[in-house]
Amino acid sequence: MAFGFPAYHTERCSVSTATADLRKAVRETLFALSWSVREETYERIVGSTSINIRSWGEKVFIQFLPDNSISVTSKSALPTTCFDWGKNKDNVVKFMAEFSKHI
Predict the structure, then answer these.
(1) Cis ω for the linkage preceding 79 (within 30 of 0)
(2) Which fold has domain 8-102?
(3) pLDDT value of position 36
(4) Distance CA 90, CA 93 (A)
């Protein structure tokens, strides 16, 4: 469980293959998880989860880093959310597990 305004969780993932298409793998991962793509730039892709019984949804920020790695941050969509009850960590863990299938 994280505490902050808004609540969030971040992890980093390094990819050993230099030829891996990280951008394509991220898009495929978001599609497989049924998460929406909200914004896409050269530096990052922003996705979002849907509202459910546990939360009002989260934004998922995937930052492309120069060392062939990504940083994944899940933040609660409501800026006043200070307790996420582990939902953001669950999102990042779920993303990383699915991402490993597409890399």
Answers:
(1) no
(2) TATA-Binding Protein (3.30.310)
(3) 96
(4) 5
